[in-house]
Design brief:
Length: about 130
């Protein structure tokens, strides 16, 4: 089952093609399951190569999350380029804050926080560089 909300889909962390179970000795009596690597490319050209248990072609996911930038990556790279134009992509917390507040709002919040710290005696009345 593929969970689209997780970056750890398809295999457990640390598994590479041809490796056995990490918590078992090399003389493990069972058969090792065949694995395959699948390449995905995002719109920025990053390649992601997750490892899957050998699956029929129609069961291999068409898209995957890029491990470098978090954007949607596809098997041919073309679909990811189209999706990138539609979606804004990953945003940091600071980018979301800047969307909600103007520079003046940020200055007011900072001034209020400094005033409260000074009133409690946690911060000196004048900091280097204060007017």
């Amino acid at each position: 089952m593929v969970n689209t909300a997780s970056g750890f889909r398809g295999t457990r962390v640390g598994v590479t093609e041809g490796t056995g179970l990490k918590n078992q000795s090399d003389d493990f009596p069972g058969d090792r399951l065949p694995r395959m690597r699948v390449s995905y490319w995002c719109a920025k050209g990053h390649e992601t190569r997750p490892v899957f248990i050998k699956l029929p072609e129609d069961q291999v996911p068409l898209v995957w999350d890029c491990r470098r930038c978090g954007a949607t990556a596809s098997r041919d790279g073309q679909e990811a380029a189209l999706d990138e134009a539609v979606e804004e992509g990953f945003k940091s917390h600071l980018e979301y804050v800047k969307e909600r507040r103007s520079d003046q709002d940020a200055e007011d919040v900072l001034a209020g926080a400094l005033e409260r710290l000074r009133a409690r005696g946690v911060l000196a009345d004048q900091l280097p560089g204060d007017p």
